[in-house]
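In this section we walk through a basic example: taking a raw amino acid sequence and producing a predicted 3D structure, encoded as discrete structure tokens. The instruction is simple. Fold the sequence below.
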Amino acid sequence: MIEKTRASRPSYFPAIRAVQKFKEARIATLTPVELEAINEISRRLTRLDNQVDELININNSFIEQRAPQVQFDAETDTITFRFRDIEQKIKLKRANPNKPIQSDTRSVAGVYKAGQTTEENQEQNPNELVFESALEDHYQNAHKVLKLVRSLPGLRNFECREITIVRNKLVEHAEKTEVYSFGFGTDGPTVRPLLSSGREWIDRGLVHNIEAFVKRLAEAFEP
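The resulting token sequence is shown next.
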């Protein structure tokens, strides 16, 4: 049996620590405006980190509640998917008859179209509204951090495309034809995973996006 996996909990701590060290190293040369920006960055990063627990916990609860159970039979190369009373079997064909097929559970995921749950289902899943609001707020707050970082000397060109793409293209300025949807899985929550034909912008998941953001922040604020 392939157990349902869970999204890991990314941390903003390396970025928070880097910003604090930057402040301590340059406190004598910072202007009052720059110091205020750094203090706001620290505060917002702390808020973002506090919010991660809620988002990952709801994401993982959705995996438990909604993701199908998956069983792989290595002897017959058959995958069986079960969700409630539905069962589907898929027979895989080996590319190399002498090389066994191996399983990979990293793709565990689910998607729902916001606002299309029934009243009964909405009562059973009240976390959907919290999930959607917290996720969009997370990217808005992270984008504000981006703008504050760019206001500091030497960091005018600071960028994190993972945050910018989700905030600008999928949250704030999404095309009218885009489906308002949310996803959950081992890569964390996603925004608008239901794609329109030919859409370029894709959310790779909150876990990946935070890790990329934290890495760039830690590098930018290296004393």
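Looking at the output, two observations stand out. Residues 94 and 101 are 7 Å apart (CA to CA). The longest helix spans residues 32-66. In the next section we compare this with other chains.
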